[in-house]
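Repro case for the chain-ordering regression, as requested:
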Amino acid sequence: MSEPALLAVEGLTTWFPVRHRGWRLRAPQRHVHAVDGVDLTVQRGEIVGLVGESGSGKTTLGRSIVRAVEPTGGRILFDGNDITHLSSRALRPFRKRIQLVFQDPTSSLNPRLRVGDAIGEPLIIHQLADTEDARRRRVEELLAMVGLPGEAMRRYPHEFSGGQRQRIGIARALATGPELLIADEPVSALDVSIQAQVVNLLLDIRKRLGLSMLVIAHDVAVVEHLADRIVVMYLGRIMEMAPSRALCRAPRHPYTAALLSAVPVPDPLLRRAHIPLPGEIPSPVDPPSGCPFRTRCPFVLPACAEARPQLREVSPGHWSACIRDDVLPS
Amino acid sequence: MLLSINDLSVRFATAAGTADAVASLSFAIEEGETLAIVGESGSGKSVSALAIMGLVPNPPGRVTSGQIVFRRRNGSTEDLLRASSARLRDIRGNEIAMVFQEPLAALSPVFTIGEQIAESLRLHQRKSHADAMRMAVRMLGSLGISEPEMRARSYPHQISGGMAQRVMIAMAMACRPRLLIADEPTTALDVTIQAEILSLIRQMKEETGMAVLFITHNLGVVAQIADRVAVMYAGRLVEEGPTKQIFSSPRMPYTSGLLASVPRLVTDDSPLVLSAIPGEPPSPLAHPRGCAFHPRCRYAVKGLCDTTPPPLRDLGNGQAARCLRIDEIVGGAT
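-- result from build under test --
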């Protein structure tokens, strides 16, 4: 890995202020610690999966990377350039290189825009097609890439099914020839038989275009099929990070182990022993000291409350933020 | 037989035309059994559940044919589609209860959780307010909710989604129903919470001996909870049988396609492959002729599958499937 990462996130922090209740005018300002010191890289051509449950900060992290929300601290390096504090004008050339795929293709496409115009819009904005004819050819090429017929460009989003609309969303994201796709729950709104189609489409696009992806999803099984590496988040922090197969086969962090054990196995002859997690996820306004998972961890020690555990490389490429090495088999 | 549905058809009149949401559906649930209805969007799985509860919105929906025969606690049988509303009120929430996908949308924001659980006890079992509240608190405690007295006094906006689903289950279980209908009860929840809710339903079932009709699109959940599976596609039942058989030897190509397209969490060295079913589930407004699955089926034969609607064939081992080529594609279905 001598080549610099395409995306490097260093100590990224995104806090949101909590609005005061009226009568507590002098109370100190409190914050939701949505993302709390995250280090992450995406190499060229790599698919990184970001998994976590609701409230883990995975979506905020994705939105912070594209500066849809302003990070409170840390740095975002894209292809070696620090884009953390760029003005929106200075950010524009980077917007072309980082594109987004959304969860709900129905609400992310303008219903009044024909599909051809929706996909062609980024080409106009970034001045990537000089003539109408060039634009039409490029749109046709993009539709073909996502497995839709060229005549789709003359139709409106409502004429398509959910799976087809997600393909249109992907075609639109690919229009500017991005180097990085950030996809937030790209398949979770789709039917099971269609999910597999879109997962395979994303893998195919990576193979053909060699681009990188950061895929944010709650479904670990989907992510395992899609990603080279998986990053597990809990309460705004990274708990574990490893090559997908290694992480699913031998998780080293107790939270990952509990998360994996909860995934229902589609085989009636197999029942994985489910590791129950007591209580609820703590409030991100007032996260526990030390390890954020310690309040629910079956292996908690007094030391877990003292210092925030750092990510340690427990085996090559496999990082875990747990101070205990003795509880899970490596 | 606790519940038997015969030849149920439900139609919706929409601006774009008539949708055959459920087309001559028949199935039965035995006492104490967990039956999972599996299907994708538009398969008619949720509408069938609504029909059992008499909750098909009319208009635009209308039950156009069929019977839903329920055996009551006292041994008498009742066709729920023809019962008087007084009878239905007596059965619903009492002998048949339902939990929904969005618990926070199903709870009333203006009553406390305790009051909402107590309501059905007061209604169906004529308990006093104080007794019903005490039972509600006990109910919450038995569902593993900490500080049940305090929780009973909270309002829905003060609790999390997972807690709200437990409250919904407490409401449903309050009168010890003989049938629990659970429509995607864990779809909106995180997996760790889902696992808890599933074991809670399993535990309630063991304690009370109730039957469960579990509606879901998630085959992982089905494998973990169901005794029997009914697969629906385009408003029809296309395959049914014991869970182990359906998973190990599905006979309808849609079932096997669906099983192959589920991403499995692979925790060993087996290969990671996802084989998708081509195409999309059909719109209920325009079900394909013949076998509704034929445009997506790799075994479809021109002049047969696109013209002749396949009958549901009993395979003799408790399994039944709807496929014209069932004898030719044995074993090759996956």
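Ordering looks correct now. Chain B touches chain A through 49 residues (CB under 8 Å).
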